[in-house]
Design goal:
7 helices, mainly alpha
Length: 204
């Protein structure tokens, strides 16, 4: 395998891990469920240590967990409680998913990328989702929370599938999203540092 092919393979692996990490930020169970389904139907080949994830028992168990997760997010007051617990869980899930995707790296590099990229992207997305749901609860009394939950579920499934089918595209999309997010954060920071204009006009 030449260097160019190795670079492309690594880029695809990181793109896959980032995509699954983003999906974990929307829904923790969904990317594992999609990965299990893809492995079960021979669309993805897992390493030997994770072959169990592509088995029928794992797929059935994850399907049950997915149904429970969907039902839990359908209850307006419960979804906010889950978000507080799901943030660290999503970070761990994103770390594991990235570690699975980047298994060709040496262990130190694999887990460094997994923690920083996979866990970081999952925690960021989960934090933004939790903030959106909190604002929704405060402004609408939770009336739009079910809509948000539906969008998150569909988004998690679509992103997981896209990560499997087009990991390089996912890499570019996630990178572009975080560049825009950092630019927005920097602009917001400088905006808060500007002195507020005086409410009274200066004497003539």
């Amino acid at each position: 395998m030449d260097l160019r092919a190795m670079d492309l393979q690594l880029l695809e692996s990181i793109g896959l891990g980032l995509g699954l990490g983003v999906a974990a930020g929307f829904r923790v169970v969904v990317p594992f469920w999609v990965l299990s389904a893809a492995a079960l139907f021979a669309h993805v080949e897992l390493v030997d240590s994770l072959a169990w994830l592509g088995g029928t028992p794992a797929f059935v168990s994850l399907s049950i967990a997915l149904v429970i997760e969907i039902l839990a997010y359908s209850v307006p007051w419960l979804d906010n409680v889950i978000d507080t617990v799901a943030l660290p869980v999503a970070a761990v899930a994103g770390t594991l998913l990235m570690a699975i995707a980047a298994n060709q790296l040496d262990p130190f590099a694999q887990w460094t990328v997994a923690i920083v990229a996979g866990g970081g992207v999952a925690a960021t997305v989960k934090g933004l989702n939790g903030l959106t749901r909190l604002v929704s609860t405060a402004t609408t009394g939770g009336a739009t929370n079910l809509v948000i939950a539906g969008i998150e579920l569909v988004g998690a499934v679509v992103i997981s599938v896209l990560a499997l089918l087009a990991p390089v595209v996912m890499f570019v999309l996630v990178l572009a999203f975080f560049i825009l997010l950092v630019r927005f954060a920097i602009k917001a920071f400088y905006r808060t540092q500007k002195p507020a204009p005086d409410s009274e006009s200066p004497p003539r």
